[in-house]
Design brief:
Blueprint: H1 35-61, E1 82-88, E2 97-103, E3 108-115, E4 121-126, H2 130-140, E5 156-157, E6 165-166, H3 172-177, E7 193-199, E8 202-216, E9 222-237, E10 246-249, H4 257-265, E11 268-272, E12 283-288, E13 299-303, E14 313-314, E15 316-321, E16 324-325, E17 341-343, E18 350-353, H5 354-367, E19 373-374, E20 382-384, H6 388-391, E21 398-402, E22 407-408, E23 416-420, E24 423-426, E25 428-431, E26 437-439, H7 441-444, E27 447-452, E28 457-462
Parallel strand pairs: 3-10, 4-5, 4-9, 17-26, 18-25
Antiparallel strand pairs: 1-2, 1-12, 2-3, 2-8, 4-10, 6-8, 7-8, 8-9, 11-12, 11-27, 13-14, 13-28, 15-16, 15-21, 19-20, 20-24, 21-22, 23-24, 27-28
Length: 472
C-alpha cells in the first residue's frame, strides 16, 4: 500500500538571500512554518515514501502469484445497493482514506483502508492458538524476517464471532485459490497462513478464515454478507497500518471483498473520496450496486486481465496541458509493453513513468515560470504562492485523455497541491521506465468513480461526495 517521515527543515524568519541573475529562478522560502503546516508536509512526505515502496511492490506482483481459480458465486441481485462511509485520513497524519466495516457475528466495527490495489481483506485479530499459528507463518517467511506486533486501537476478537471459520492449509481453497498463501502445512487441520507483502518493510501476517460482514442499505436496514475470505492478522509491519485496523480489498480477483459484494449487488461498485485535507466529520462513500446519484457520465475501458490482478488498468490515450496534447510515447500507456495506467485508491500522489513525467512537469512548470520557485524536499516543483505574481498567474489545465474520447479534468488542487500555507507543489512523482503509471487518490478526490465489472468500464463524474450532490 501507499505508505519515513523525513525531518522537516526549520525555516527562519523572513529573510531573502541574493541570487545571481544568471542562476535559476529557484528561491528558498525563509519563514516559520506553523505546526499544522508542518504536519501537512510531513504527511505528504510519508505518503510519497510509501508510494515509492508501493510502486516497487506493484512492479513485482504482476505475474509472480499463482493463478487463482474462479469460485462459484450466487446470481447477482440488483434490487438493492449497500453503502459505507469513507473518511480522509488527514486527521491521523496519513495519505490514506478509511472506510467503516462491521465484521463477525455479533458485528464488531473497524476502520479499514479501502484499497483497489489489494486482494486481501484483513483485520488486526486475536484468536486462540495465535502463538502456534504465527510460528507456522514464521517458518514460511523468506529471509528469516522477524514480525512485529502492531499496536491497534481495535482488535477483532475472532473467538467471539459465531461466523468465524478458519480455512485449513489442506483445503483446495488454500492450495489453489489463494495465490499469496504460504505453502507451510504442518498437519491437515492447520490453518492456511499468509505473509502478505505490500512493499519492502510493509507486510501483514496471519491466517485465512471465512467470515461475514454486516452491511447497510441507504434506508439503514442491515443484512449479513456471507462467504467472505478474511485475513486474521496478528502481526503487521509498516507505517501504513498505524492509523487503521486493516485493509478492505477492493482489487479485482476471485476472493476479494469486491468479488463477493458485486456478486450479490450487481457487477459494479463506486466510491467518492472527499478532499484529502477534509476534516474528520466530512465523509464520502463506498457503494456496491447501482449508484442512484450518478447521472449519465463519461467512461473509459477497464482492462480486467486475470494476469494483472488485483489491479484495475484503464486505457489511457494521452495527457494534455493547457489544451495541448503532449507527445508522450504510446508505449507508456501500453501494459503489454511494460507501461499502462492503474487507478489506485491506496496511492496518494499520481505517478507517471519517466517519459510522461518529464513532459508533464515541464509543460506545467513552463506556464508557472513567473511564480517564484521554492525548495521543499522531496517535491521537484514547488512555488511561493503568497507571491503577488502567483495571483496574476493562470494555472494551466491538466487533462487525462482515455481511449474512446472520455477526459478527466481534475480541479487545480488535485495536481497543484497545498503542502503548507503559501506553498504549492506539482503533485506528481516519477517511476523509471518501463514502469506502471498510477492515478492516485488525490487526483481522484471529489469525483464519483464507478467500476462496472460486467461491461469493463470505468465511469467518473465530479462531485463533492455529499449524497446526491454533483458538481457541474
Amino acid at each position: 500500500m501507499s505508505w519515513l517521515p523525513l525531518l522537516l527543515f526549520l525555516l527562519s524568519t523572513a529573510t531573502q538571500e541574493s541570487v545571481n541573475a544568471a542562476e535559476s529562478n529557484i528561491l528558498t522560502l525563509h519563514r516559520r512554518i506553523e505546526h499544522s503546516n508542518a504536519s501537512r508536509l510531513e504527511r505528504l512526505r510519508t505518503a510519497i515514501h510509501g508510494d515509492g515502496l508501493r510502486q516497487r511492490m506493484i512492479a513485482g506482483v504482476i505475474g509472480r502469484r499463482r493463478k487463482a481459480n474462479e469460485v462459484d458465486v450466487p446470481l447477482p441481485s440488483l434490487e438493492s445497493t449497500i453503502e459505507m462511509p469513507v473518511w480522509s485520513g488527514a486527521y491521523t497524519g496519513t495519505g490514506q482514506y478509511f472506510v467503516r466495516v462491521r465484521l463477525g457475528t455479533p458485528a464488531q466495527p473497524f476502520l479499514l483502508v479501502p484499497d483497489t490495489g489489494s486482494d486481501l481483506t484483513w483485520v488486526t485479530c486475536r484468536y486462540r492458538g495465535t502463538t502456534d499459528l504465527m510460528s507456522a507463518v514464521k517458518d514460511g517467511r523468506k529471509n528469516g524476517q522477524r514480525s512485529r506486533r502492531r499496536r491497534a486501537k481495535r482488535i477483532f476478537e475472532a473467538d467471539l464471532s459465531r461466523s468465524f471459520h478458519p480455512i485449513s492449509c489442506s483445503s483446495m481453497s488454500c492450495q489453489t485459490e489463494l495465490p499469496f498463501a504460504l505453502t507451510t502445512c504442518p498437519k491437515a487441520t492447520s490453518p492456511c497462513t499468509y505473509d502478505y507483502e505490500y512493499a519492502q518493510g510493509s507486510s501483514a501476517q496471519g491466517f485465512f478464515a471465512n467470515e461475514s460482514a454486516t452491511v447497510e442499505f441507504p434506508n439503514r436496514r442491515r443484512m449479513k454478507l456471507k462467504g467472505l475470505v478474511v485475513g486474521c492478522t496478528s502481526s503487521a509491519v509498516g507505517s501504513s497500518f498505524v492509523s487503521s485496523d486493516g485493509v478492505l480489498a477492493l482489487g479485482h480477483g476471485p476472493n476479494t471483498f469486491v468479488s463477493r459484494a458485486t456478486a450479490r449487488f450487481g457487477q459494479r461498485f463506486s466510491y467518492c473520496l472527499v478532499d484529502h485535507l477534509s476534516p474528520r466529520n466530512a465523509t464520502g462513500y463506498l457503494t456496491f450496486g447501482p449508484n442512484p446519484f450518478l447521472p449519465p457520465h463519461p467512461s473509459a475501458p477497464l482492462i480486467l486481465d486475470p494476469f494483472l490482478q488485483p489491479f484495475y488498468y484503464v486505457a489511457v490515450a494521452g495527457i494534455s496541458v493547457a489544451g495541448e496534447v503532449l507527445r508522450i510515447p504510446p508505449s507508456v500507456w501500453n501494459y503489454r509493453r511494460g507501461g499502462g495506467v492503474i487507478v489506485d485508491s491506496g496511492s496518494t500522489l499520481t505517478v507517471l513513468a519517466d517519459p510522461a513525467y518529464g513532459l508533464v512537469v515541464n509543460a506545467l512548470s513552463h506556464r508557472l515560470a513567473e511564480v517564484p520557485r521554492v525548495q521543499v524536499d522531496p517535491f521537484d516543483y514547488c512555488y511561493n504562492w503568497s507571491s503577488p505574481k502567483a495571483a496574476a498567474t493562470c494555472v494551466p489545465s491538466f487533462e487525462v485523455h482515455f481511449v474512446g474520447g472520455a477526459r478527466l479534468s481534475p480541479p487545480v488542487k488535485s495536481y497543484l497541491i497545498d503542502v503548507a500555507d503559501g506553498v504549492k507543489c506539482l503533485g506528481f512523482t516519477s517511476t523509471p521506465w518501463p514502469g506502471v503509471s498510477i492515478i492516485g487518490n488525490i487526483m481522484q478526490q471529489e469525483h464519483i468513480w464507478e467500476f462496472d465489472l460486467e461491461n469493463q468500464r470505468l465511469g467518473f463524474h465530479p462531485s463533492n461526495c455529499a449524497t446526491g450532490t454533483l458538481f457541474p
